Amino acid sequence: MKLVRTRHELAEIVTQWHHEGETIGLVPTMGSLHEGHLTLVRALDGKATRRIVTIFVNPIQFNNPDDFQLYPRGLEADEALLAETGVVDVLYAPDETQIYPPGFCTRISVSGPDRMLCGGDRPGHFDGVATVVTKLFMQTRANIAAFGEKDFQQLCIIRRVVTDLDLPITILPVPTVREADHLALSSRNKRLTPAQREQASHLPKALMDCLAALKAGQPVTAALEHCTQTLKDAGFTVHYLDLRSEKSLGTVEKAEASARLFVAASLGDVRLIDNMPVV
């Protein structure tokens, strides 16, 4: 595996790969890697002959400067973890100048899907995500990119960008990877104190109980209110809890097959998100 730090060196590598007829798979990350990221890498088995993982903590998607500064980083550990897989060809870890050169003033905005759920209380967040991911698509010239369903709204927005801008890349969705107590794997979990980590196990349990109630015929409003109160009683600050369509992200009135339960809730200053399908 080769560590690449500049877009010019990366361009030389991917140009040669395309000349040789290789298929390039991409896993964009912000580092602090865990088994969820490695699952994305493995999801490219049989779909790509070359694999690039990118690590870039993107400043323009953070609403809170403190959150950006506190985001866990550890390039050496991440590099070692990826090297152990034996299947990653390039780790692209640019600094900010390689992504946002002096005078950079362009943004990609996805109107509609970015204003609900996490976009509702994180204005501009998904503009930052859409912009950096498009930049990484262009710099890596990947044929296929893997994204986890844990960030389902992000997945939907990236699909929208690819469709709307006719980007020549396939988006591969990968199911959420969970810990033994069903908490979705996330780099932010590392910021939880031991007590908060124990509390965090109530989040997936509350979602599963809510889905069970919905499937048993409980009205959506009543099920969501009960789940919200359960999370508050467990010490969470609940930002939203919604039942929405997988396709449009619009709200739905019943537990239909194409619906998902979405939640964002915080323990202290650590914001956790999750989602689960009705089926």
UniProtKB/TrEMBL annotation:
<feature type="binding site">
    <location>
        <position position="61"/>
    </location>
    <ligand>
        <name>beta-alanine</name>
    </ligand>
</feature>
<dbReference type="GO" id="GO:0005829">
    <property type="term" value="C:cytosol"/>
</dbReference>
<keyword id="KW-0067">ATP-binding</keyword>
<feature type="binding site">
    <location>
        <begin position="148"/>
        <end position="151"/>
    </location>
    <ligand>
        <name>ATP</name>
    </ligand>
</feature>
<dbReference type="InterPro" id="IPR014729">
    <property type="entry name" value="Rossmann-like_a/b/a_fold"/>
</dbReference>
<feature type="binding site">
    <location>
        <position position="177"/>
    </location>
    <ligand>
        <name>ATP</name>
    </ligand>
</feature>
<comment type="similarity">
    <text>Belongs to the pantothenate synthetase family.</text>
</comment>
<keyword id="KW-0547">Nucleotide-binding</keyword>
<keyword id="KW-0566">Pantothenate biosynthesis</keyword>
<dbReference type="GO" id="GO:0005524">
    <property type="term" value="F:ATP binding"/>
</dbReference>
<feature type="binding site">
    <location>
        <position position="61"/>
    </location>
    <ligand>
        <name>(R)-pantoate</name>
    </ligand>
</feature>
<feature type="binding site">
    <location>
        <position position="154"/>
    </location>
    <ligand>
        <name>(R)-pantoate</name>
    </ligand>
</feature>
<dbReference type="InterPro" id="IPR003721">
    <property type="entry name" value="Pantoate_ligase"/>
</dbReference>
<feature type="active site" description="Proton donor">
    <location>
        <position position="37"/>
    </location>
</feature>
<feature type="binding site">
    <location>
        <begin position="185"/>
        <end position="188"/>
    </location>
    <ligand>
        <name>ATP</name>
    </ligand>
</feature>
<comment type="subunit">
    <text>Homodimer.</text>
</comment>
<feature type="binding site">
    <location>
        <begin position="30"/>
        <end position="37"/>
    </location>
    <ligand>
        <name>ATP</name>
    </ligand>
</feature>
<keyword id="KW-0963">Cytoplasm</keyword>
<protein>
    <recommendedName>
        <fullName>Pantothenate synthetase</fullName>
        <ecNumber>6.3.2.1</ecNumber>
    </recommendedName>
</protein>
<keyword id="KW-0436">Ligase</keyword>
<dbReference type="GO" id="GO:0004592">
    <property type="term" value="F:pantoate-beta-alanine ligase activity"/>
</dbReference>
<dbReference type="InterPro" id="IPR042176">
    <property type="entry name" value="Pantoate_ligase_C"/>
</dbReference>
<dbReference type="GO" id="GO:0015940">
    <property type="term" value="P:pantothenate biosynthetic process"/>
</dbReference>
<comment type="function">
    <text>Catalyzes the condensation of pantoate with beta-alanine in an ATP-dependent reaction via a pantoyl-adenylate intermediate.</text>
</comment>
<dbReference type="Pfam" id="PF02569">
    <property type="entry name" value="Pantoate_ligase"/>
</dbReference>
<comment type="pathway">
    <text>Cofactor biosynthesis; (R)-pantothenate biosynthesis; (R)-pantothenate from (R)-pantoate and beta-alanine: step 1/1.</text>
</comment>
